């Protein structure tokens, strides 16, 4: 089962990382889910694939009432990010899913009704969770053509979706990056192959460098903290991407 | 058993599981409180000396009761988590069945016959297995709740006995009486949570 670990807490404004499913079959890629709560309201960020719904649902329920999850944020359309939508929709038919306008007609293949989806315009939008205003930050073509990150200016946390993702080997799967140089080797191949646009990459690096970020939280692998955040942005800006082999 | 094939029913089942889980969390928090209170009561009885020997024994028993209750609730929680997996499988299976049914209606000739055959074998195997699994989990949950209710009844008897023993606590009688009243109050709250739990458990589930 996964566990929900609080990574930020200020009163009832909290961030949880839902991570490390020991019972996950090896053929499924490991994913991180996140939940932001504020004043009785909650949003799930990339709730994961339908195969891992029981693990995510149970981890969330351990410390939180899942009936308070009113919103879902999908960074992009991949099944490992959002195919559990059908299950969340079963649980709460009034749930809203924020996703790039591009995927509004695609995601209903996973589940939901017409009014389930809130399209995010290309330049992003604000999403209110309780009293907290979160910002959908454009990250198009990294890797999806309609792709967003989610920034919380109060918590100084950026949920970066597939940007910063690493495929960690067993035994090196801590929640936080502890040794950047050692960690980044597990991110390199993924970024070279999955990230296709150098221009989009440079735009993203400039955009997020202007944000005040304490934690950069990817959908796979470990969380970057403190100086490792800028270290990652610098590493990514220099990386040769859109190549078949390194 | 309620028909869990339809989309609304599975959603209802998930919400029912959440209501059960929320009550479990309440009981766990109260069991933790009883454990701490019992520990303090043991110290208090030691300070009171000979006159509170009986109260000390009962406090020890209440502490053991709290530990047993916590274990029982952990097992209950595990069973409800198992139900989430089974409901997920049911949702997937029922979705596949709905799509196959639509395909069967639209198909012609041999394709229609093959789909008919496939659906018959699916209905007899996968869905039936998942539903049986769900029914078994619910039966198990009902038995566990019944066992927990009995355990809490024992807790209630212990708290009442502690109240009687407190009367013999000499100079400490007032403090011991206060502690035993608190035990009684919290165990009463647990009983009410268990009643809600039983209600949620039997809600629309006709197994």
Describe this structure in words.
The complex is a heterodimer of chains A (246) and B (207). Helices cover 25% and strands 27% of the residues of chain A. By secondary structure, chain A is an alpha/beta fold. Chain A has one domain (3-238): Ribonuclease Z/Hydroxyacylglutathione hydrolase-like (Metallo-beta-lactamase, Chain A). In chain A, helix 5 (198-209) runs antiparallel to helix 6. With 207 residues, chain B is mostly helical. Chain B has one domain (7-95, 132-202): Four Helix Bundle (Hemerythrin (Met), subunit A) (Up-down Bundle), CATH 1.20.120. Helix content of chain B is 89%, strand content 0%. Chain B is built from four helices and no strands. Chain B has helices at residues 7-48, 53-106, 109-166, 173-202. In chain B, helix 1 (7-48) packs antiparallel against helix 2 (53-106). Chain B starts with 6 loop residues before the first helix and ends in a 5-residue tail after the last helix. The A-B interface holds A 1, 50, 53-54, 57-58, 61, 65-67, 86-87, 89-93 and B 7, 10-11, 14-15, 18, 21-22, 81, 84-85, 88, 91-92, 95.
Q: Give the largest interface.
A: A-B, 17 and 15 residues
Instruction: Give me the secondary-structure category of chain A.
Output: alpha/beta
CATH architecture of chain B: Up-down Bundle
**What share of the residues of chain B lie within helices?**
over 70%
CATH superfamily of chain A: Ribonuclease Z/Hydroxyacylglutathione hydrolase-like
What is the CATH architecture annotation of chain A?
Answer: 4-Layer Sandwich
For the record, the CATH class of chain B is Mainly Alpha
Give a quick rundown of the structure.
With 246 residues, chain A is α/β, with parallel strands linked by helices. Chain A has one domain: Metallo-beta-lactamase, Chain A (4-Layer Sandwich). Chain A is 25% helix and 27% strand.
